[in-house]
């Protein structure tokens, strides 16, 4: 038995060594490999997809790392009591307070999911968590500034984006409160449920910092796989979808709003940068549909849908997506008929 | 015995994960060292990538220590109540790790391509300033007014009455408003006023494009020198082409195409996606019912694609100094 075990661990050791060797060879010969005629012959579309795919990854990864670190710090250093003290008892007050939490945590949609999941695991009510998911990627100073610079000739759009995001996030929170109350919507593993009773700051042995690093690494692999898959799907749409064709079918209010929402979902652009893309669509789309793009994209896109599905029960994710879609759609229609007319 | 096996497995997982984290670190360092990072993300995002290099390094190294016998024993004593062990079959694990390994490998081997005409075709080129304006039309005296809603049915029923009604509406609403542009562009435009020759560089590209588009009438007849790749729209006359650049805000996924329409006798010989430096006189044209700057080319030369093909919004235009 002992021999078998060592044999087995030797084989595993070799897998790791091989992988590391491949990485090192790639690293040291990057210039040569990239200009190798074999790889240069790859079809243009493939190279474009790969470039956009890596772009999204390289852009999002630091923020995912930030998110998993904040989440790991919360796991290690914040107690459940602290969270319960901080959250207002009144659900409406709680929802409104949560929708402004982006002023304190100005993070985008990639980083927010691990943080919210951790907070909910630490006992934060579900409706508060959902409001944070929906509001923080939009109602924060960084996103406000980038929207302002992209639309400074049209301040109405800036206010409409912030206003619609606030209204939709609050309504989502209240609906979630009414329908799900305090029921459990996160996916837990059996071990976690047993451990839940025991959750308390660790007593000894593993230092808190070591724990934080370990949790962060585990969570990076947990979240990272969905980010990679989502980034890949988004890069396919980025490169292969013809946006000009979309413009030609956007004939009335409803279709142009729906198209822009679909686009926001599929392109999966970070909420900090999406205002510039929206502005570049220029005068082809109505103001309401631009606002819909700017509100719906950060709330939901390909990569965060995958992450949500990994962490929350499917029924809950479907509910969240459905109300977010309905609220943004009707909100944008209403804006088009009134303020932005 | 079972427990021992589980430990072994978890040790192996942390070991492989450590190597993958180091792989990501190597990829980022490689891209930074080769100067290729700029093809993926904008300069203002680079500090975040440096941060990621450090974090990947630290996480990777701690994973190695964690995978050792001693590290595993220590971890058993961890009371944090979180299940660290991954679930599922080894086949599933293989594919999950493959998912992480693929971008590292394609990052090492696949050549990068900056965006070109094939992407511009799909995204659509933005002419003039990147500022959002509501749909507008030009009135007879050259002023820009918001487009009145066109009701095709009503027009078909009685064209004359319909046109009359629209004209009435225009007068009633008195919608002639000048686009309110912020002070930065006003100042920028007045700086350019004194010059006869406007030099467009990668640094000032977006600002000059916006200003020349907004205050087109003030710049008519001036000389302009610019650089970009050749792009052609389907409905463009043969002697016209677009000299285009991709503008990146955060990463190449959010890049948009900006272009200037140029014309000249030799323009039809230009191949798409080749880079040209051109100079010529600023004139105006109408393309897709939009009033736009046009450059009448008098000098041009073929150039190599610049090392950094992208242009970025200037920090001044973003209000950051």
From TrEMBL, chain B:
<dbReference type="InterPro" id="IPR015402">
    <property type="entry name" value="DUF1980"/>
</dbReference>
<dbReference type="InterPro" id="IPR048447">
    <property type="entry name" value="DUF1980_C"/>
</dbReference>
<dbReference type="InterPro" id="IPR048493">
    <property type="entry name" value="DUF1980_N"/>
</dbReference>
<dbReference type="Pfam" id="PF21537">
    <property type="entry name" value="DUF1980_C"/>
</dbReference>
<protein>
    <submittedName>
        <fullName>TIGR03943 family protein</fullName>
    </submittedName>
</protein>
<keyword id="KW-0472">Membrane</keyword>
<dbReference type="Pfam" id="PF09323">
    <property type="entry name" value="DUF1980"/>
</dbReference>
<keyword id="KW-1133">Transmembrane helix</keyword>
<feature type="transmembrane region" description="Helical">
    <location>
        <begin position="94"/>
        <end position="111"/>
    </location>
</feature>
<feature type="transmembrane region" description="Helical">
    <location>
        <begin position="48"/>
        <end position="65"/>
    </location>
</feature>
<dbReference type="InterPro" id="IPR052955">
    <property type="entry name" value="UPF0703_membrane_permease"/>
</dbReference>
<keyword id="KW-0812">Transmembrane</keyword>
<feature type="domain" description="DUF1980">
    <location>
        <begin position="181"/>
        <end position="313"/>
    </location>
</feature>
<feature type="domain" description="DUF1980">
    <location>
        <begin position="16"/>
        <end position="125"/>
    </location>
</feature>
<feature type="transmembrane region" description="Helical">
    <location>
        <begin position="12"/>
        <end position="33"/>
    </location>
</feature>
